[in-house]
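Ligand: LQZ7MJT6. Inputs:
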Amino acid sequence: MDEDILYHLDLGTKTHNLPAMFGDVKFVCVRGSSNRMKAFEDMQDICTGTDRYCMYKTGPVLSINHGMGIPSISIMLHELIKLLYYAKCYDVTIIRIGTSGGIGIEPGSIVITDTAVDSFFKPQFEQIILDTVVTQNTELDKELAEELLKCSKEVPDFPTLIGHTMCTYDFYEGQGRLDGALCSFSNEKKLDYLQRAYKTGIRNIEMESSVFAAMCGLCGLKAAVVCVTLLNRLECDQINLPREVLLEYQQHPQKLISIFIKKRLGRYNPK
Ligand SMILES: O=P(O)(O)O[C@@H]1C[C@H](O)[C@@H](CO)O1
Ligand SMILES: O=c1cc[nH]c(=O)[nH]1
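Predicted complex:
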């Protein structure tokens, strides 16, 4: 294309010098909400002309939010990956830092995803392209997951593990919840489903990992998904912890990723 407008990011190849703005990026942290982004970086939003996404950059670290669910993160990833390409970035590591519902593990734990699975526990993402269902691979980078697990030894105050992550299209019935506006199954059916999920190695549920793994894999980006669990779905559906506790939990993956980045940059000084 003579010109490419990254519409949802309010950036473009003719209006912005993308290599000058982003050429040194080595780490991209993506997360759901823009507020959480603000807590991460006290910086000027790069995507000022749009309220779809917010983006902040500190040296080699780019942070961007992706909203909720597969369609929202997918749009952001298309434009972000093109941005990295136009900026001539190389050796980029991309990490989704998120929240999730845990299965059979203590709330506050971190799950580093090895493979994202769908609601049938299959390690795949079904993308509809034109009128064809295209099945894409959802495995994440194993070495990166191990490196992150190693970094977690520096933050022993919360358990961290590697496991499968189930990615759904909905927060309520789609995640086997009984507390939505619609509720079409029994508590027994719900527990049977979640226990079967646990037996296949699934340790948490969220709503973006499958398309994230698939798109990053297809584009050759080393990617990881690191989510804190806010509740144990074998015990409840409602997220009923006090706001302060939830905010503290959300810091867990952030602390881990900050150690990981500092270590990679040779700037980690354990206290
Ligand atoms: O934005 P985060 O990482 O918290 O994402 C999870 C999955 C859904 O987008 C959202 C539902 O509460 O939480
Ligand atoms: O249960 C949960 C908690 C956070 N995010 C989800 O998608 N599910």
